[in-house]
Structures are given as C-alpha cells and as structure tokens.
Amino acid sequence: MVSWRMIGRQALHDCRVFDVSRASFEPPEGGTPREYYVLSAPDWINVIPITDDGNVVMVRQYRFGIAAETLEIPGGMCDPGEPPAVAAARELAEETGHSAGELISLGWVHPNPPLQDNRCHTFLARALTTAASQGPDDDERIEVVEVPLERVPDLLVDGTITHALVLAAFQLYQGYRRGVSPPAVRP
Known about the structure:
There is one protein chain. The protein is of the alpha+beta class. The protein has 2 domains: 5-40, no CATH class; 44-177, Nucleoside Triphosphate Pyrophosphohydrolase, CATH 3.90.79. It is 18% helix and 42% strand. It contains 3 helices and 10 strands, in the order βββββββαβββαα. The strands form 3 sheets. A 4-stranded mixed beta sheet has the order 7-4-9-8, with helices on both faces. The chain has a 3-stranded antiparallel beta sheet with strand order 1-2-3, with no helix packed on it. Strand 2 (19-26) and strand 3 (34-40) form a beta hairpin. The longest helix has 14 residues, at 164-177.
C-alpha cells in the first residue's frame, strides 16, 4: 500500500496537554491535497499495579470530558524527555502512593490514530510497597480502590470500567499472561 504524503503542517493552538495542527496530505495516487487536524500530545502511560494478594490498585476520579467519575488504573502523560517506564513509576506513586519492585512493559497502543500522533504505553507493576502519600495534580481528586484481579473482566464488560485505554491495557495484560511479546516501539 502506498502512503499519503504530508506536504505541510501549521500549528494552530497550544492546549496545555496537546497541540492542534492543520496538516495537508497528498493522496497516494496524486490529486487534490486534503487538510486534516492533528492533536500532538506527549506519550501516555497506564499502569496495572497488582498486589501480592491478587488485587489491582485502581483509581476512581472525575473526568471532565464525560462529567462523571470513572474507575481506572493509574496513568498519565510522560514529561518532556521522560522515558515511559520512569513516567509509569512516577504516576503510580503520585496517584496511589505505591512504588513497584518490578515494572514490566506490556506494550503500547495508538490512543486515537485518526486524530492523535502519540502512544499509550502499558506497564505491569508488581512487588508493590507503600512509598508515600498520594501526590496528585492540583486538578485531580483521586480515590484509591483495590479490586480483585478476577473481578476485572466482569467490570470491563458490565460498564463499570469504560475508559477505552484501560480496556486496551487489560488486553495487553492478557497477551502477556499468554506469552505474547509486546510490539517494539517504533520511531
């Protein structure tokens, strides 16, 4: 398959957590270029922290996009120049007060490739210890909730967990449990 070719890109707006650009692409077979809007964001991370007794440390928090609380796993953005594993350890501590003795990469997904250019990396955190008290961002109010791992599949299906990237994270976790190797990070 022949790819579209980007022939121009103009930055339009900086929205703190992402930038909006208008990009022009030429179709593979030639013809009239078309314009698309692209959200450029830092890579994101998700962490599936599992306690020694088989509970997943989850967070309940308010999400402004849906104006409701959600049940999720810890996650967030990579700071500029911060490797995903370092961001995962930082977000785990900030959102739950835990640190991981072992952090395993489960892979990554593109959150929304029609509009976004970033990735969401997922990590499994084991050998958890309570490192400190939570240190969430100023606009976060987080309740830490432990859920038995065996209950998670039901929560994914019954609508208790609705965040698509959390569903993707648990799919990567299932692949890990079956011995499937995660995709390599491409430039």
